[in-house]
Design brief:
This protein has helices at residues 2-20, 52-60, 74-83, 109-115, 175-180, 188-203, 247-272, 315-318, 345-353, 367-370, 440-452; strands at residues 23-30, 62-64, 67-68, 119-125, 139-143, 156-159, 162-165, 210-219, 279-285, 323-325, 334-336, 340-341, 381-386, 390-396, 399-406, 420-424. It is of the alpha/beta class. The longest helix has 26 residues, at 247-272.
């Protein structure tokens, strides 16, 4: 009898501990610019794109003014999210940046949460995870192949460890055909959303807290056939249909508003299921605004004026319109200037859930920031990308250094001889005034520090 009582007590303690852990939702947009969400600075001659649900999300939570994606393009950026390491250390730890094979035995953020007692689901784009079910997710529907993600009306979709045929998408499709009969075809965004909502109904209020990774493939340029990046597929142009803009720009605005609607549906589901008050929701973009598929990032001032765009080391290529909402913890309407990037997510979620992150990661927890407390400033953020021949960007405090000639003499690492541009982001957020000629001490300090960290400047998904 005493043994039975002891087991009951232990079981009760475990259940109680699980109940105290918040549910976690990460909503990822693909190539969404810092100026394309209404609550962030922006504006253009063509007005603002309508994002009422995201604006409400930010008003009810925390808006980050110095949040960064993990990289300038998709898969490497997401690699930082799932590993806690930035690209300057990918080479050191054998990370390809484009995929994480199961044979590498890399601890992913999703596996960490699974081990911490979470039931986990992934819906949408999962690159760099080639085997979501073996890499920390109990449930999955989406597209594993990153190239296939660019087809928003595919012939098949991945479900767990198999594929499901989509006969409705057979035959030759085009913008005109799918828009004429939108309900006739399977649009991937709708499928991701439906699977996510169904899963939420299954797990919400269950014995375990849940982690949902809802990874949309818009507003990334895409296609209606196997050829990628033909335009901006969307079932309808909605409120923008009568605008005198080029079709691709009407589609671009419409797909962002469509994405916004999906975010609103997630939030409504959480409220309907009575788990809203114990759920931490993040929203972010995997890199800066794109300039592909015929879309011009200047049309809507998609970067909000930040220099560069996707595939750039400047702010417009790596800044993310990130937000977080956590009732009872994050004060509504909070604006944070704390500097963080995707590789900080693993240790942050570890702090929140009691999970154990991988050893020697680059990330630091920003849980104190979420709680509204002060925390020490980040020492640095580091991104790499291709340039002449390779390049890197480093932010330390308010200053940003950009090097476009890393890799001289075959040494793929920061060197004292690197030519570094310098920008004071407080006075010059759009990086128009290179102050390197008067910043020799800062340049010396920054290069010395980076060299001491044994970082490399390899480019990934180039």
């Amino acid at each position: 009898m005493a043994h039975t009582r002891m087991l009951f007590v232990l079981f009760s303690l475990v259940v109680g501990a699980q109940a105290n852990k918040p549910n976690i939702v990460w909503i990822m947009s693909d190539d969404l610019g810092a100026g394309e969400v209404g609550i962030f600075p922006g504006g253009s001659d063509h007005g603002r794109i309508s994002t009422p649900n995201l604006d409400k999300f930010g008003q009810e939570g925390m808006k980050f003014m110095n949040a960064y994606a993990g990289y300038t393009v998709c898969a490497p950026s997401r690699t930082t999210l799932f590993t806690g390491r930035h690209s300057g250390n990918f080479h050191k730890y054998g990370l390809a940046g484009t995929d994480i094979p199961t044979t590498q035995n890399v601890l992913t953020t999703s596996e960490m949460l699974q081990k911490a007692g979470y039931v986990t689901g992934a819906f949408g784009k999962t690159a760099p995870l080639g085997s979501p079910i073996e890499q920390g997710f109990d449930s999955f529907l989406g597209q594993i192949n990153q190239g296939a993600c660019h087809n928003m009306y595919p012939k098949q979709i991945d479900v767990k460890n198999s594929t499901m045929e989509l006969p409705a998408n057979s035959g030759q499709l085009s913008r005109n055909i799918t828009m004429a009969n939108p309900d006739k075809y399977n649009y991937t965004i709708d499928m991701f959303q439906a699977a996510a909502e169904t899963w939420l109904h299954q797990v919400a209020g269950g014995p375990k807290p849940f982690f949902m990774y809802l990874s949309f493939t818009v507003p990334h340029a895409g296609g209606w056939e196997e050829q990628a990046e033909q335009g901006q597929p969307v079932p309808s142009d909605g409120q923008y249909a009568s605008e005198s803009w080029p079709d691709v720009e009407k589609d671009h605005a419409a797909v962002i508003t469509y994405l916004d609607t999906m975010v609103g549906r997630v939030m409504a589901s959480l409220q309907m299921l009575n788990v809203d008050n114990n759920t931490l929701v993040f929203f972010a973009s995997d890199n800066g605004a794109h300039n592909e598929g015929g879309h011009n990032h200047l049309f809507f001032n998609s970067t909000g004026g930040l220099r560069g765009f996707k595939r750039s080391l400047y702010e417009g290529g790596v800044r993310s319109p990130s937000m977080a909402r956590w009732p009872g913890v994050i004060a509504p309407g909070t604006v944070s200037d704390f500097m963080w990037a995707f590789w900080d997510v693993m240790p942050t979620l570890a702090d929140i859930t009691g999970g154990t992150p991988a050893d020697n990661i680059d990330g630091v927890s920003f849980l104190d920031t979420l709680k509204g407390n002060d925390q020490p400033a980040r020492k640095y953020l580091f991104h790499t990308w291709t340039a002449k021949p390779k390049g890197y960007g480093v932010r330390m405090g308010n200053f940003k250094g950009v090097v476009n000639d890393c890799g001289k003499n075959g040494v793929m690492a920061p060197q004292m001889s690197d030519t570094m541009e310098v920008y004071d982001l407080t006075k010059d957020p759009f990086e128009t005034n290179d102050i390197s000629s008067s910043s020799s001490e800062w340049i010396q300090m920054a290069k010395t520090f980076l060299i001491s960290q044994n970082l490399t400047c390899y480019c990934f998904q180039c």
